[in-house]
Design goal:
alpha/beta; Rossmann fold; four-stranded parallel beta sheet; 12% strand; disordered C terminus
């Protein structure tokens, strides 16, 4: 089936896909921050879009739209940067999953978050440490 692009699906289509056994959700993250004068502010977000599409295609997963915020406090002096703290980003990751409605509707077994940021600097890595209820 390929990518199940959540924002382009109707609620009944999502329900049918869940009933057909689709239980994987991909939530990409990519910050809006400066990348010098040669790259757009949305570079990380655009990478998140692409990584999310590739991962969702590989796993026949639901693809949630990229969350376009990150921990970029070191870039705040540059125009256009949007930043939140690490605890806030962690909570956004949890809320993004809960907001999809999958927690209640299918008890998804697999949720993946991907970041458009360099792994050595990624602040979303701590999202997996959030306690589960």
């Amino acid at each position: 089936m390929g990518i199940l692009d959540l924002e382009k699906m109707t609620s009944p289509e999502v329900r049918r896909a869940i009933d057909d056994g689709h239980d994987t959700i991909v939530i990409p993250f990519g910050s809006l921050e400066q990348h010098g004068g040669h790259l757009p502010i949305g570079t990380d977000a655009m990478l998140g879009d692409e990584f999310g599409r590739r991962i969702a295609a590989r796993f026949n997963a639901f693809l949630v739209p990229t969350v376009r915020v990150g921990c970029a406090e070191h870039h705040l002096a540059f125009a256009g940067t949007i930043s939140v703290g690490k605890d806030t980003l962690r909570q956004v990751a949890v809320e993004a999953w809960l907001a999809t409605g999958f927690a209640a509707s299918c008890s998804s077994r697999r949720t993946g978050a991907t970041s458009g940021r360099s792994p050595r600097r990624s602040s979303s890595a701590g999202a997996s440490k959030v306690p589960r209820s």
